[in-house]
Amino acid sequence: MTGPRIAAAALTLAGVTLAASYLWTSSLPLALIGTLLAAFGLGGLTSPRRVSTHPEHEPHLQGLWETARHLSADRVLTDPATGNRLWVERFRGFVTLAVADPDEPDADRAATVTRYMLAFGRRPLPAPLFRHLTPLHDAAAATMSWRQAREVLRLADQTGTADTTLAELIELCAQLDRAVAAIGDEP
Q: Which residues of 104-119 are buried (b: 16+ CB within 10 A; e: fewer)?
């Protein structure tokens, strides 16, 4: 059992103990609090957890997360080697790293943005990272409801088509490192 599972089991045990104390003390608030604690503990024990199936991705994910979480959300970085623009987005609890194609005014197609979901809240997501491609000026991802986002994530989880590869993750880390290093070179 892992740390969160042990904590959930301890919470369940404490809740059941408090609820059972109603038999001796006849204190209804104590029984209600114990029932709530036991319910939260059982929820933690039975909740599905997405476990990393790619342990070779973990060191790169950790480095990517450490770098991205210290970047401000209003700054756009440029990778000097590829010209790609990178920025961090924080929306509805998700932390994503967005990578946009370089500006090409003569291009026939619109620039695309690849968004990599790095974390939810303060915890990085396990490998493989979810990748979402959109046109540069498309606001559909930002206006997506929780239900739509859950369906997109479920489909991506079942098919694996939106998962990043190890080579893509290494290139993403290199791009972010070069872009952050270029900040220090600016006057």
A: eeeeeeeeebbbbbbb
Q: CB-based contacts of 85: which residues, under 8 Å, 6+ apart?
A: 76, 77, 78, 79, 99, 100, 102
138 DSSP assignment: -
| CA contacts within 13 A on the Cβ side of 162 | 17
**What would the pLDDT profile of 46-76 be if each residue is shown by its tens digit?**
665 555 566 777 777 788 878 877 888 788 8
Contacts 24+ apart (CB under 8 A), 146-151: 146/92
Place of tokens 């401000």: 72
* Claim: this prediction has a pTM higher than 0.85: no
Rounded Cα gap, residues 137 and 75, in angstroms: 17
Helix axes 3-20, 28-46, angle to 10 degrees: 160
One-letter amino acid for residue 61 of the chain: L
